[in-house]
Each structure stands twice: as C-alpha cells, then as structure tokens.
Automatic annotation (TrEMBL):
Cofactor(s) listed in the protein's UniProt record: Zn(2+)
Recorded superkingdom: Eukaryota
Keywords for the protein's UniProt record, in alphabetical order: Glycosidase, Hydrolase, Metal-binding, Zinc
Organism: Parascaris univalens
E.C. no: 3.2.1.-
GO biological process, alphabetically ordered: mannose metabolic process; N-glycan processing
Full protein name: Alpha-mannosidase
Zinc listed as a keyword: yes
Length: 1084
C-alpha cells in the first residue's frame, strides 16, 4: 500500500513540474511574439512587413487621450481570424458533406431535350405518340371571365389603381345581382389597395363571393412574378405577403397558380407554391414551337415534375393556354376572327379583324350558338380529355359596368342554347371547377396525365421573336432590388433577436416600415418591373419606391443596433438618391475621438469577411476586444464616379458571429499601429501615368511603375496573371486546383436590334474598347487588387489573404456605365482551361437549383441565352468553376469552355412588344451599376457523377453566394460603446439556410420562421470551417436565444398547421435536401 502511495505522489509531482515547464515555454513563446508586437495569428501582416523591409515597433505607445486609460486598448495585434471563432469550434466535429444526388426523374417530356432536338433543329423527337382523344360526349366547358392587370407597365402602379378600383367596384355590384356569373382576380397588390377602402358590409359581400366560388382569387401572391430574375427568398415573401393577406382578411386560400403573362417559366416558382399547398397551375407564354408540339401530342395539361423529385410528390398539374395570347380572340377556338365576334365589349368598343359582334337575340341565337360550339369542338381536339377551360378577358377589361352586362347578357343565351343540344355542357366557371372536372374525367377514364421536367426558357412568341433581353435589361434597378432584399432580411432577423428588448410601440413602428418595404419589393418582382420592361417614367417610379423603402428599412436597422448598443448609429453605405448606387459615407477621424463601428452579420453562421470604410486619414488604428487588429490603407475610389479621391479606404478582416453585431473602434494614431499602407503600382505607360497623377493620389502611398507583364496580384493561396494589353485576368493559380487558364475579355454586340424584351444581334460580338485605360494594382497584407479603369468600365479584381477555401476565391467588382453608347450590349467572357470534351454548363433557377444548358448551333445566339439570376457553373471531369453574382444576368456559352455573361444593354428603338412609340419607351435610360462576382475554383471528385439535367452548388459556392448577397452591414457612431455581452448565438449547420424570420400578422408576438436545406454537391473542396451540428439542436438553441416559447409547424405560407403546437424543447427538425421547414413562433 505504501509503495503504491509513493508512486502516486511521485507521478503527481512530475505532472506538476511538467505543467510548470509547459507554462514557462508558452510564456517564452508569447514574449518572443510580443517583442515583435505581433501574435502568432498575425502571420500575413508580419510576412508583408518583412517583405517590405519595415519593422513594427516593439511596444505601442500609450495615446494621450481619454481612451488611453481604458484597458480595452492593449498593445497586442490580432489577426482577428481565430480569436473569436475558436470560442465556438471547441468540441465540435468537422463538417462532412454527405448529401447524395437523388435519382433524376424520368418523364414523358424533358424540355432540355425538346429544345435541343426540336426547337434548335426543327426536328422534334419522332418516337412520341399522340395521346388518344376521348370522344365521349358531352364536352364540358368552363368559361372564366378575367382581367389582366399590370401593377406598372405603360403607367405606374398608382395610376393603374384607378382602373383596378373601378373593375373591382363593378365586380362587387354585378356578382351580387348575378349569382351565375364568375370572376377571377390575381395581383393582390391591387386587391389590397381596393379592399382597404371598403366598408364592413361590402367586405362581407366579397367574403361571400369567395366562399360561394363566384370570385376566385388565383395564386394569392402579392404580384404575378417574373420567373427568370427573382431570387427565391424574395419570391417566398411575395407569396407569403399575398396569401397571408387573403387568408387573414377573407379566410381564403389560393388553390391555383395563374401566370399568363411572364415571358417564360422556371420549375422553381411552381415548386415554392407547392410548399403552400397549391399544386395546380395555368400558364401561357412557353416557346411557341414547344406549345405546338405538346398540343399535337395532346400532352397538355401535364404534370410538371422537379428533376430531383422522381416520386412526383411536388408535381404541379399544369394547363397551358392553347394559342398565342390570353385574350378572347385566342381563347374560344382556332379562328381568332370568329372568337372576336363573341367578345361582346366590341359591340360598342374596339373593332374585330373581320366581322364585329352582334347582340344575341331569339332570332340569331341558334346560328350564333352553333358557330361558337363549332369553335369549342375544334379546340377540344387539342386535348385528350373532353374538359375545356376558356379564358374570357384581356388587359384591364371589365373596367366598365357596361361590359359586364354585354358579356353576361349575350353569353348566357348562347350557353342555354348550346346546353339544350346535349353535345356540350357550358357555363361560367373557375379554375377550381375546371380542374375538379378534369381530374374526375381522368379517374373515370383511367387517364394518366403526361409528365414533364425542365423549364420554359427561352420564350419564343408566335411571331418568332426570342424574349431573352430582359434577363439583363436595366441592371441598375435589378441591383436596387437585391440591395433592398438584403436590408429587409437583415432587419427582420435583427428585430427577432431584439424582440424582447423592444417596446410594443417600437415593434409596431418597425413592422409597419418593414411591411411598406416588403410590399414595394414584392411589387418590383412583377413581370414588367424586375424585368426592366416598363416605360421609363414607370421604371423611375419603381426606383423611387425602392429608394424610399431602403431609407425606411435603414432607419429600422439603425434603431435596433442603437438600442442594442445604447448609442446612436447610422448605416454607413446607402444610396443618396433614387438613381444612384449606394456609396460609403466618409468617416472623419479626429484627435481624441473614438469612432465605433458596428458590423451586423445577417448570415446564420460564423463567417470571415473583409470590411471596407472610407476614412479621412491613413493615421488610424482599428481595435476589437481590446486588441489592435491588422488593417490596411488603400486609395479610396468613389463608388458613384469611379474616380480616385484624396480620401482613404480602410480595410480589415472580421470574424463575425452569426446573426449578431460586432463592435470595432477606430482611433487616430499618427504611427498607425497595426495598419499598413498598401503599395500602389501602375503600368509603365505614358497615358496611364498621366491619368494616375491627375487623380491626386495621396502622397503617403508608395507608388511605383511596373511593366505590363509585371501586372499581377497574389497571396499565399492565389496568384493571377493578366493581359499585357488591357490588364484583364489571364490565368489563376490556387492551392487546391493549381494553375488554370481563366482569360477574361470584354466584348459587345454592336448595332443590336431588339429592345427591352428581346435580343436581336446583327453579328458576332467584337472587342469592347477600354478607352482612357488606366491599370494599377494595390497590394497589402490583407488583400491585393488589380484595377482596370476606363471611361465606361472600372473593374477591381481582388484576392484576399484569408484562411480556408475562401482564400482561394476571386472577387470581381465592375462599375459599368455605357450611357455614351448606342445599340450596344456589353458582355464579358471567361475562357477557362477545362476539358471541352467533358465540360457541362449550368445556370441557376432562382438560386434554388442549377439547370443544365447547352449551346444549340441550329439557332442564333439570342436563342441560346438563359437566365442567370445568381450563378452559373462549368464542370469537366476533375474541375468545377462556379461564378456567383449579386445582379441578375443573361448568360450563354461562347465556346464549350467559355461562358458569356451579359452586363448591360442600351438600345434606341422599341421592339414592338407593347411599350409603343416615343422616347418614353426607349431603352436609353441606363444608369451606372456596380456588379459583383465571386469565382470559386474547385477540384472535384472524379468518381462522383452529375445527374444528366440538373445539379447543385458545392458548399463553397453556396456559402460564397450567401456572402455576396448578404454582405455585412456596417454602421458607425462617434464615441465608445458600453461593454455589451457578446452574442450567445451559435452557427447553424452550413447546409441549413435561414431564409427569414418575419412578421406575419398584426400580432406583435408572432413571427414566421422559414428554413431551407439547399441541395449541396459534395464533390467540391469540402466544408471549410463548417462544423457538424444536429438540425434539431441548431433550431432549439436559436429559438431559445431569441426568447421563443412555443412553435407551430406550418406550410410555407404560415397558414396550414402541421401537427400540434410545441414548446421549444420538444420541437424536432428533420428536413431533406431541397425542402423547407416553416414555423410560427410565439414569444408570449
């Protein structure tokens, strides 16, 4: 026993001495590092100064100012990359991407193959057999009176409201007196405006119309959205805003999607509707050749299936209108001039191609009814079933009570006469009536509807025009919408975090402003708004609404951050006018003054970002958590003009906790401890040298000349080379991929035809002249940038010296200004060093999924353009290159390994698609726009194969897109903030996206939480700094952190309850890739 005791005692002593020895060694290492004024985390900064031949002072001097006495301002310089993040990584397992692609759905029709083998070659697949026409009698016909109302196009939304109010007033009068009459309404933005002026009795009548089925509210979304350009979280807001309104006010639920006017359709918007319970749709504008082909085979209606849903759980049973348009002339049958004779508004208004309508009398009803039925019978031959839908209306119809009487009084006797013959049963009906009868017919006759996968881009109308220009048209306005979305989302989430600290009055004030902004952003998703296809004065009105919304939301976020930190902050980067891009406010750095910088991270995970501020002097020090952090001073380039200024750009890296505000302080420091002055080098060319000098570059910068072949940027992980002629990137070398060709060119299509809607190139693109070219590089330890500065284009290409996969990404920001051009479409191309034989090309569908594209040689370039709302991707056997953007574009392939992205368009004539003649219709009102790209280079696992027609982003590309769209929001204030406890929020799993947590009702104590699990391609470079976190654990701790008490799972719109309400500790989260999980959370 004594021997055992002695051994234990001896072991304890040895452990004690060993522990003391370890501590002593650690202190020695620390002192060595401290003697250089740097911690081990400061390696990029240290290496940079060693290379520059400079030394850092051994000890930072105390500042003679009030802040010098505060212990916050110690002398240690931190790289700021690990100090904070390590707090969360302890005891966490590294993330392992384990998603597998699902089996791709196999369907009767695939639009990719249809376009490739049919449209582009005029040879549709010959193996398809026409479905047999069911000749059972009688024919069932549902005629649906409707009006199509654009919330902005030739006139502004407010101007059109006068017409829509009149239409709805007429509806209220007429339906009350005519119970057999039916009417369909979409565009809730107009309906809400009208509803707000009704008295209680009138509202009761409207509710009764909805309950009885006389009035059908289709889609329920705030507006009928474009489907090429929107980012899916904004589409969700558009759907939720409208469907919540009609449920709350009328107790109604939308059952059918009505989308007659958007210029093409994608699979993602219908998929989002299915998550609200809507699985029926009526669409119209698909490629005319495809429409004819499907009709010849009697394959309409079809079940529209997602590529990733082989079981068809999210199928949308989709009807396509039969002919070229949605008006009455294209509705009742194949002969438009005959159908026109039954558009009874034309008794007193408008004309017909041949014969005008005649009023129906006892004398002519038989003849008229027979002619009408003949058209219906011919129409029915397009379909397998004997159930027909006939739309009865046009743009802004039924705005006169006279038309209601004309249509009803003349159609009713025709219906009665036709019904008396027993060959056809016809009545006024709704979408729901039609689909109910159709589905019953299919059951009775053992019909299985055709299935279809893919999208309907590009759209070609019956005249042969290709509608692909609007993917890019007016990018300034598109960028405005993206900026507002990011601000709304950030403020929603920040409000949620602070909900327990805000008074009821403050919450109501914030909710009102957010509702104002959210509805304006939803309005902008309209298919003539985000598309840029309205008259100039209407586009200007949209811009003013978006600008007012930005100011409203900025005031909310400012309020929240100010309350949180108990001092007044203001957002640092906002637009000064409705027609200007956002610009940074100059921060005046003065002696004895502290500038507090609050950086809000609206992303649901830790992230490492680069913060940029405009400051008045280079003599600054940046402090966080009592430590001086590395910073970099660069020349400041004005965002509005694109010119160099006498101010300075302050750069520092920030590791930002999720959904939280991080505080940094900036002080004046004559020796600018921890802050390095970047080098500036410009190409040794006489002209370019003169440009640089004329811009009054501050003399503090070490400026030198370089030869064109010495124009490059590099970090530890990346090195680029650039064209000696113009400075555009030529090659890139990264640690993961090695060296790869990535040769950028700037080109343009000249003498282009077309207009806001359509593209019509007159020949191949030619090189874009970079007149007034100036090339310079800015190099520092934190980042390096290569600048191309010309009259119409300024481009900054940046590599950042940051850890992990993000350090291998390339960041390009362009300032595009083509106002001095005419008939020009500006493009950029990237010739990639990929294997052309194995390379496949994809663009995204609303940021939700990637769809395979292919350049079809049988059609012109404009017919090979596809929407690129957020990203494109090329992949060969071993490499993948993803390009993500913060602005919507059109994109195509120039060669098998060269994507082409359109940047802006300026055209001087109308394209004949409805805007009409005159200067107000001409696409020459373009504005300077700032466009951001992040390029992700990855080596992929060759053993993993892609599905044939779709793909997902890799985790690196997904996170890069989130970082680009949801940039950190910077706010500033004078003074030192009080010490606020750091956020307790933890990261979400990297493959779980927090879409929103927004208000949904007047109840201030409830919010709608929407989560999405994106599909992730696991063949890329891996998860970087992501940790493996259980979904249920992540959800519960988030709910606890915001003070939620109860949780109710619902459909995506927050209407249909799923299961019972639960307390936070009981909630569980299981979510499959590509699915959503939605909850109503209650705080009190």
């Amino acid at each position: 026993m004594s021997i055992t005791y002695m051994l234990i005692t001896l072991t304890r002593r040895k452990l004690k001495y060993l522990l003391l020895l370890v501590i002593a060694i650690a202190l020695a290492i620390y002192c060595i590092a401290e003697s250089d004024g740097l911690s081990r985390h400061s390696s990029p900064y240290h290496r940079w100064n060693a290379r520059m031949g400079k030394s850092i002072q051994k000890k930072e001097a105390q500042l003679e100012s009030p802040i010098a006495k505060r212990e916050d301002f110690g002398g240690e310089i931190s790289q700021n990359s690990l100090d904070y993040y390590e707090q969360e990584t302890v005891m966490r397992k590294a993330y392992k991407c384990e998603q597998q692609y699902p089996i791709e759905a196999i369907t009767d029709f695939n639009t990719f193959e249809m376009y490739k083998n049919g449209v582009s070659s005029s040879l549709y697949p010959t193996l398809k057999k026409s479905r047999t026409k069911m000749n059972k009698q009688p024919l069932q016909v549902f005629l649906l009176p409707m009006t199509h109302v654009d919330p902005g196009w030739l006139e502004t939304f407010d101007s059109y409201t006068k017409d829509t109010n009149q239409i709805l007033d007429n509806m209220l009068i007429f339906l009350k007196k005519h119970p057999k009459m039916r009417f369909m309404w979409c565009e809730m933005v107009f309906f809400e405006r009208w509803w707000s002026h009704l008295n209680d009795a009138e509202k009761t009548d409207v509710r009764q119309f909805v309950t009885s089925g006389q009035l059908e509210l289709a889609s329920g979304s705030w507006v009928m959205t474009d489907e090429a350009n929107p980012y899916f979280p904004v589409t969700i807001d558009n759907i939720v805003e409208g469907q919540q309104f009609i449920f709350r006010e009328l107790g109604a639920k939308a059952k059918v999607i009505w989308s007659n006017d958007p210029f093409g359709y994608g699979p993602s918007v219908p998929y989002l509707f299915t998550k609200t319970g809507v699985k029926l749709a009526v669409i119209n504008r698909i490629h005319h050749g495809m429409k004819n082909y499907l009709q010849e085979l009697r394959a309409v209606p079809f079940k529209w299936r997602q590529y990733f849903d082989a079981r068809g759980e999210s199928d949308v049973y989709t009807h396509v209108l039969p002919y070229a348009h949605y008006d009455i002339l294209n509705s009742c049958g194949p002969v438009a001039s005959v159908c026109c004779e039954f558009d009874f508004k034309r008794l007193t208004h408008h004309m017909c191609p041949l014969k005008k309508p005649t009023a129906i009398t006892k004398e002519n009803v038989v003849e008229r009814a027979a002619l009408f039925e003949d058209q219906l019978m011919k129409l029915s031959h397009l379909y397998e079933s004997n159930v027909l839908l006939v739309m009865w209306g046009d743009d802004f119809r039924y705005n006169m009570l006279e038309e209601w009487r004309q249509q009803y009084d003349n159609l009713s006797p025709i219906f009665d006469q036709i019904n008396s013959w027993n060959r056809t049963r016809i009545r006024f009906g709704t979408f729901v009536d039609y689909f109910t009868a159709l589905q019953q017919f299919n059951i009775d006759n053992a019909i299985n509807a055709a299935t279809l996968t893919g999208d309907f881009f590009p759209y070609q109308c019956a005249l042969g025009d290709i509608w692909t220009g609007y993917y890019t048209t007016r990018p300034f306005y598109k960028k405005q919408g993206r900026h507002l979305h990011a601000l709304i989302r950030a403020t929603d989430l920040a409000t949620t975090n602070m909900i327990e600290k805000l008074s009821d009055d403050e919450r109501k004030w914030i909710n009102d402003k957010l509702t104002f902004a959210r509805r304006n952003l939803s309005l902008f998703q309209h298919h003539d708004a985000i598309t840029g296809t309205s008259k100039k004065h209407v586009m200007s009105n949209y811009a003013q609404l978006l600008f007012q919304s930005v100011k409203a939301v900025a005031s909310c976020l400012t309020k929240i951050v100010s309350v949180e930190n108990m001092m007044d902050f203001e957002i640092n980067e906002v637009p000064l006018q409705y027609n200007q891009i956002p610009s940074k406010k100059l921060i005046l750095i003065e002696p004895n003054t502290i500038i507090s910088v609050a950086v809000y991270n609206s992303v649901e995970r830790w992230r490492f970002e680069t913060i940029s501020l405009a400051v008045s002097t280079y003599m600054v020090r940046v402090i966080r958590g009592g430590k001086t952090i590395q910073a970099q001073i660069e020349p400041f380039i004005d965002q509005r003009s694109g010119n160099l200024t006498s101010h300075f750009n302050l750069i520092f890296h920030a590791d930002l906790p999720p959904l939280s505000t991080s505080i940094f302080t900036i002080i004046e420091d004559e020796k600018h401890h921890g802050t390095v002055i970047a080098e500036v080098a410009y190409v040794n060319d006489h002209h370019e040298e003169a440009v640089i000098r004329s811009e009054h570059l501050p003399k503090v910068f070490n400026v030198k000349l370089v030869k064109p072949d010495e124009f490059f940027i590099e970090t530890d992980a990346v090195r680029t080379t650039h064209s000696p002629e113009n400075g555009l990137i030529n090659t890139i070398r990264t640690k993961s991929v090695g060296e790869m060709q990535f040769a950028q060119t700037m080109d343009h299509y000249v003498n282009s035809g077309g207009g806001p809607y359509i593209m019509h190139q007159s020949g191949p693109a030619v090189a874009f002249s970079l007149s007034g070219l100036s090339r310079f590089v800015i190099k520092g330890p934190l980042q390096q940038s290569a600048y191309i500065h010309s009259t119409s284009l300024m481009q900054r290409t940046t590599v950042r010296n940051v850890p992990g996969n993000i350090g291998e990404q390339l960041h390009i920001v362009m300032r595009v200004d083509i106002r001095r051009f005419a008939q020009t479409e500006l493009i950029t191309r990237f010739n990639m060093g990929l294997d052309g034989n194995s390379t496949v090309f994809y663009t995204d569908s609303n940021g939700l999924q990637l769809l395979r594209r292919e350049y079809n040689e049988g059609v012109p370039v404009n017919a090979n353009y596809y929407p690129m709302p957020t990203s494109l991707m090329l992949q060969d056997r071993s490499h993948r290159v993803s390009i993500v953007s913060d602005v919507e574009h059109g994109a195509t392939l120039y060669t098998k390994t060269t994507p082409e992205i359109m940047l802006d368009r300026i055209l001087l004539h109308d394209d004949g698609k409805g805007l009409g003649p005159g200067d107000d219709s001409i696409l020459n009102d373009v504005l300077p726009v700032e466009i951001g790209f992040t390029i992700i280079f990855e080596r992929v696992d060759e053993s993993r194969t892609l599905p044939e027609h779709f793909a997902y982003n890799t985790l690196s590309a997904h996170l890069a897109l989130q970082s680009l769209l949801y940039k950190p929001i910077v706010l500033t204030s004078k003074g030192n903030p009080p010490l606020i406890p750091s956020s307790s929020l933890k990261s979400f799993p990297c493959d779980l996206q927090l879409v929103t947590c927004r208000p949904i009702a007047p109840d201030l104590n409830q919010r709608l939480l929407i989560l999405h699990r994106p599909g992730i391609d696991c063949s890329g470079n891996g998860g970087g700094r992501c940790q493996s976190i259980d979904f249920t654990e992540a959800l519960r701790r988030y709910l606890k952190s915001i003070g939620a008490l109860k949780v109710q799972k619902t459909t995506l719109n927050g209407i249909e309850k799923i299961g019972a309400e639960e307390v936070v500790d009981a909630v569980k989260l299981h979510i499959e890739p590509m699915d959503f999980a939605t909850f109503i959370i209650t705080f009190i």
